[in-house]
Design goal:
Helix content of chain A is 72%, strand content 1%. By secondary structure, chain A is mostly helical. Chain A has a two-stranded antiparallel ribbon. The two termini of chain A are 37 Å apart. Chain B is mainly α. Classes of the chains: A mainly alpha, B mainly alpha.
């Protein structure tokens, strides 16, 4: 594959990571804890879409190689993820009387419950959406880019959702309230913002985007009960790289981490070509930068960012 | 106030949750004994369960030294457990790609040294981080360790894992041949269902002895450390790191010491596991092990070693109970059921009893300093609420 091919793959994978990382970052800044159940919220979205798609079927026509029914399923996946998250907030997180570390630990329990329920219902095996796999777009193959119309759909939908979120945050009342709350919850509260309601909306938006990310992840790879949990740390890496609490940082971080993840084979080619001395160092680096370690590289970047620049690449910038 | 001198007074001295736990534990042990005598539960399997409970208790002790004493959120328990298991397995197993064939004692030493190195490697960068960042970073680094173990086939045999690990007492005088030398016993307690004790039983008994030795040693070291001035500094760090620093303590160094101590105990659990299971694979580094240990600690009560012991027993009950349930009653896949129970336990503890079932009591004073009976009033809300540890650094 050429550089362009890797970049194109990176763009598609980044879209999924960005959808996940925005929600995680929003919840981190407004509900004020690291939500370890975020990955499994993605899984919930994916499986809800799977069930819906199986129920409604194709519904006639198709856009970008995806039947209309799939988009219905996508909306249902988003909705179910949001509803489940709001219910969890109402039933579990809100009545809790613990600090943010306690909430973090609780969210691990929630993550296990989500995953266990899905696994009991659907088994632990891989499944796929019942969509016909497509061949790569012919016109792009000469450039070494092998992406399908589905990938274009993923990227396009992600861009639409991100732009929608941007508009919401910058130009609506709710967005202004959310930014105020992320900035200073106490001040937001005394200035008359109903912080509880804003928090609920945060869950709706964060979990909804996660649900969409989960559906796309299922389309990009396949569905498995562990899919979300496996991606969770990569998403954390993206959020931390972008700076916790900053939505635009999360977008940038998600983009970078997704790109690095998919470009790893390219980097390993580059490293092989570079004249690195001494030889043992070259061997070590060549061994470490391989596709098996794509996720590990993201985690190491995450730790380095935490140490060197805990505010992330976006710095102190507000939400 | 010893239990033997005056059991009644000792019982009256217990707090209510302690009585509950005692009652439930006694009932549970009786239940297991009855099951064993009637033949429903093989004695060898029973000892295996005891060994497993000891292993989880050991893991929880290790985590307790980090989270309970010092407030370090370490989500890399599985990495230390796995490194301990792999350390000894690589030295002793016949299928080891690098060394192999050494005595398990060499394996133990190597496992501890490797765990020490890993603790420093993970601790040096992450222990300066804020609590929630430490959680994420340590989970990430544990995944890095898992990926390395999975992919470096020349070193670890990759996904095939390591087979042919000898028992821990292999090559020891007397003990190595003890199971074979012991006569097979046939006990008939209830007519018609004899309990047969064979070589495998004695083997399992030796393993239990080993884990009891490990856990006992860890328990006493931790108890002594907890009450020492060193332990007091750790507790100060847990409740207010800035205060500890203002008192002139090098908190980073203290945190590192408690991290290393805990990690070594976790590696000890790994060593025991390798010689119990006689096989290790990359699956043993799965993050679920980390959360088993966490459930045991928060259920038992953070900072409480008795609680960790109790938590370890609960974990084994969940782990093996789901398997048993699957075999006997409900044909539900045990893996997700286990996950569900773990999740429910975490949420329920955090909701209804965030300080755990057996929170540490009298932890600031020597027991001899309390004269005579009378348990001090147990605070309803533990130190955890008041520590306000969300914005230190």
């Amino acid at each position: 594959m050429t550089v362009l091919g890797y970049l194109a793959n990176g763009l598609v994978f980044s879209s999924i990571i960005v959808l996940g990382s925005i929600g995680l970052s929003l919840v981190y800044s407004i509900a004020d804890f690291a939500n370890f159940a975020h990955g499994d919220t993605m899984t919930i979205g994916a499986y809800s879409a799977l069930v819906t798609f199986g129920a409604v079927g194709g519904l006639g026509g198709a856009v970008l190689g995806l039947p209309y029914g799939f988009f219905v399923a996508l909306v249902v996946g988003i909705a179910v993820a949001a509803v489940v998250a709001v219910a969890t907030e109402k039933l579990i997180y809100e009545p809790l009387d613990v600090d943010s570390i306690g909430l973090l630990i609780t969210s691990i329990g929630i993550a296990f419950i989500y995953r266990a329920v899905i696994q009991i219902r659907f088994g632990s095996d891989f499944t796929r959406f019942d969509v016909r796999p497509l061949r790569p777009i012919e016109a792009l193959v000469p450039y070494g880019v092998r992406i399908t119309l589905h990938d274009v759909a993923i990227f396009g939908s992600a861009v639409a959702l991100v732009v929608g979120l941007h508009v919401l945050l910058q130009y609506t009342d709710l967005g202004r309230k959310m930014r105020a709350m992320a900035d200073n919850p106490d001040l937001a509260r005394v200035s008359g913002i109903r912080t509880k309601r804003v928090k609920l909306w945060t869950w709706v938006i964060g979990a909804g985007l996660a649900g969409a990310g989960g559906v796309f992840l299922g389309l990009f790879n396949q569905l498995a009960p562990r899919m979300g949990f496996n991606l969770l740390l990569v998403i954390f890496a993206a959020v931390i790289l972008g700076g916790i609490g900053s939505v635009y940082g999360a977008m940038a971080g998600g983009f970078l981490i997704g790109m690095i993840n998919q470009l790893t084979p390219f980097f390993s080619n580059v490293v092989e070509a570079l004249p690195i001395r001494p030889n043992w160092l070259a061997t070590v680096i060549e061994n470490m930068i391989t596709i098996e370690y794509a996720n590990a590289i993201a985690f190491v970047i995450m730790v380095v960012v935490l140490l060197v620049r805990p505010n992330g690449i976006a710095g102190e910038a507000a939400t | 106030m010893s239990l033997l001198d005056d059991p009644k007074a000792a019982f009256a001295d217990l707090s209510r949750p302690e009585r509950w736990v005692l009652g439930v534990s006694v009932a549970f042990v009786l239940f297991l004994l009855v099951a064993m005598l009637t033949g429903a539960l093989g004695p060898t399997y029973f000892l295996f369960l005891v060994g497993l409970a000891g292993m989880y208790a050991l893991l929880s002790f290790g985590l307790n030294a980090q989270w309970g004493f010092t407030g370090l959120i370490n989500f890399s328990v599985a990495a230390f457990f796995g490194i301990g298991a792999y350390g000894t397995a690589l030295m002793t197993a016949s299928g080891s790609p690098i060394a192999g064939g050494f005595s398990p004692l060499v394996g133990l030493a190597v496992a501890l040294v490797v765990a020490l190195a890993l603790a420093l490697l993970i601790g040096i960068p992450t222990l300066r981080l804020r609590a929630d960042y430490l959680a994420i970073a340590s989970l990430g680094l544990a995944e890095v360790v898992r990926l390395i173990v999975l992919n470096e086939r020349w070193l670890t045999n990759g996904s095939a894992g390591l087979r042919g690990i000898p028992g821990f007492f292999d090559g020891w005088p007397v003990l190595s041949t003890f199971p074979e030398a012991m006569p097979g016993l046939r006990l008939v307690v209830i007519p018609g269902s004899p309990v047969i004790l064979e070589t495998a039983f004695w083997q399992a008994a030796l393993n239990v002895l080993l884990v009891l030795a490990f856990a006992g040693a860890a328990y006493f070291v931790l108890r002594r450390a907890h009450r020492s001035p060193w332990g007091r500094v750790l507790r100060t760090i847990r409740s207010d790191e800035d205060l500890a620093r203002a008192l002139g303590k090098n908190t980073y160094s203290f945190k590192m010491q408690s991290f290393v101590l805990g990690s070594l105990i976790m590696a000890l659990a790994g060593v025991f596991y390798a010689h119990l299971n006689l096989y290790v694979g990359p699956g043993d580094l799965d993050p679920i092990t980390t959360f088993y240990a966490w459930v045991a600690v928060i259920l038992g009560g953070s900072g409480s070693n008795r609680g960790a012991l109790f938590g370890g027993i609960v974990i084994v009950t969940i782990r093996e109970g789901t398997r048993f349930l699957n075999d006997v009653a409900l044909p539900i896949d045990p893996a997700p059921l286990r996950l569900l129970l773990i999740g429910v336990v975490i949420v329920a503890v955090m909701r209804y009893r965030p300080q755990g079932v057996l929170p540490p009591q009298r932890e600031l004073i020597w027991p001899s300093a309390v004269d005579g009976g009378g348990t001090p009033e147990t605070p309803d809300s533990g130190v955890r609420e008041r520590k306000g540890g969300d914005d230190d650094e």
